[in-house]
Write a structure and sequence with these properties.
Strand order of the largest sheet: 2-11-14-13-12-15
Largest sheet: 6 strands, antiparallel, barrel
Oligomer: single chain
Strand content: 35-45%
Radius of gyration: 42 Å
Helix content: 25-40%
């Protein structure tokens, strides 16, 4: 019995020693922290959309008369000049109509000559008192009627000439034949609707993109903003253009409102073809050589027990209530607030409206800087849209003599534009600062990752 009790005491002592050793080793274990060094670079904020490439000018060539197509002189992709003959309609019917109109005109001219002679004789007999004044008036009226009939017949002749000329279909512009909708022997019926025979596009060296921009983004789009786009036919090549028009007429599809944005494109090598789908990025702001932070550092969550220096709000900065907002959500809140205070696109806000915007956005944790509304600053390109500064909390790894006990400071920073990967840092950090992208405390056992999108990271970098 004594021996069994001794064994139990020894086991308890061993367990206590093992627990003490495990806790001591855990206290000496360093937390797993991943960092990245801040650097300078370019940050480009863009609005994405999808559009269709099309010629700047496209003309449907139709026939104004009915008849049988006797000859087609062009085909697909045929270059044509203005006034060049494209096709001919059998002119036989219209030649006969012209002959009939000329014959009717000759008859009317002869009748007018007769009426003039009768009127002359009537006047002579009236002077000799063989005719009454009524007879003279009747003769003069008959002459005038005959003159009007001649004019009508002359108009008929001209109309017959026009219809005969319309048997020859010519190109109204200089360009290229995009479509040919007729063949020799085909009958054209133009009684009600003018049938389309050809589609001719202007020179294809100048094209345009009809892009559909969502209503949440259209407020950022301005004329002359640069554009980058890709097409599926050339996936590794980037093409360029610029915004030339933002159309005010909305398009609603399945309760989604979009606005047509026209983009001018140079196509000197004729690689781009009509109808191609373009994935468009409209550059609304481009800030060069600015301090930038990876967005993964903005999503980092450091366990409270690892933070040794708490965040201090910059002077005049609101609390970072919007830390969970994405850049798209911040832009949406800004434009919704602008719309609520009565600001429409293209209309500059009044000082009272700017103050109201700042008040409303501050309540949502967004610091709106009116000095950057619609303007450009040194080193900044693009622009044309309001830029809001937001306040976020990031974590900086400070130098520490003991690697097992790192010094981590929570810092509130002001942020500018973002491209989805990097975000511009306006204040709060400096170049070469080591910002934390993930941190795992030793007691977490590797289950408490600080970056919900990055997965666990191991090692102290």
């Amino acid at each position: 019995m004594f021996k069994r009790g001794s064994i139990i005491v020894i086991l308890i002592a061993l367990a206590a020693a093992a627990l003490w050793y495990w806790r001591a080793s855990r206290e000496d274990e360093a937390p797993q922290i991943s960092t990245v060094s801040l650097s300078r670079g370019n940050v480009t904020q863009s609005v994405t959309a999808t559009g269709i490439i099309q010629p700047v000018t496209s003309v449907e060539v139709s026939s104004q008369i009915s008849g049988l197509i006797s000859e087609v002189l062009v085909d697909y992709n045929t270059p044509v000049k203005e006034g060049q003959i494209l096709a001919r309609i059998d002119p036989a019917t219209y030649q006969q109509l012209l002959l009939q109109a000329r014959a009717a005109l000759a008859s009317s001219v002869a009748n007018l000559h007769l009426m003039e002679l009768n009127a002359k004789r009537t006047k002579e007999l009236f002077e000799k008192h063989f005719m009454t004044q009524q007879d003279v008036d009747t003769a003069v009226a008959q002459v005038e009627q005959a003159q009007a009939d001649v004019q009508t017949k002359q108009a008929n002749v001209e109309a017959a000439k026009v219809n005969l000329d319309r048997c020859t279909i010519t190109s109204p512009i200089t360009g290229i034949v995009m479509a040919r909708e007729t063949d020799p022997g085909k009958t054209v019926a133009a009684s009600f609707n003018a049938p389309t025979l050809f589609i001719i596009a202007n020179q294809l060296t100048d094209m345009e993109i009809d892009a559909s921009v969502a209503e949440a983004d259209i407020g950022n789009v301005r004329q002359n903003q640069p554009v980058e786009f890709n097409v599926d036919a050339y996936p590794t090549r980037k093409f360029f253009g610029k915004v030339i028009q933002v159309r005010a007429n909305p398009t609603t599809t399945n309760n989604v409102v979009t606005y047509d944005t026209m983009i001018a494109v140079k196509n000197n090598d004729l690689k781009l073809m009509s109808g191609m789908t373009a994935d468009v990025s409209i550059i609304v702001a481009r800030h060069n050589n600015v301090l930038r932070i990876p967005n993964s550092a903005l999503r980092a969550r450091v366990p409270e027990e690892l933070v040794t220096v708490r965040a201090k709000s910059p002077a005049g900065a609101p609390e970072a209530k919007e830390s969970s907002l994405s850049p798209e959500e911040r832009r949406r809140l800004i434009w919704e607030t602008m719309r609520d205070v009565g600001i429409s696109r293209g209309t500059p806000p009044t000082p009272e409206q700017i103050k109201e915007i700042q008040t409303r956005l501050k309540a949502k944790g967004i610091n709106f800087d009116p000095s950057r509304f619609g303007g450009r600053e040194g080193g900044h390109e693009g622009g044309g849209s309001p830029t809001a500064t937001t306040t976020r909390t990031v974590y900086v790894l400070l130098p520490s003599p003991n690697p097992a006990k790192p010094r981590i400071e929570a810092v509130q920073v002001k942020l500018g534009i973002t491209d989805g990967i990097y975000t511009e840092v306006l204040s709060g950090l400096k170049e070469s600062d080591q910002v934390i992208t993930s941190a795992i405390a030793p007691s977490s056992g590797g289950s408490n990752t600080s970056n919900p999108f990055g997965g666990p990271r191991f090692g102290h970098h």
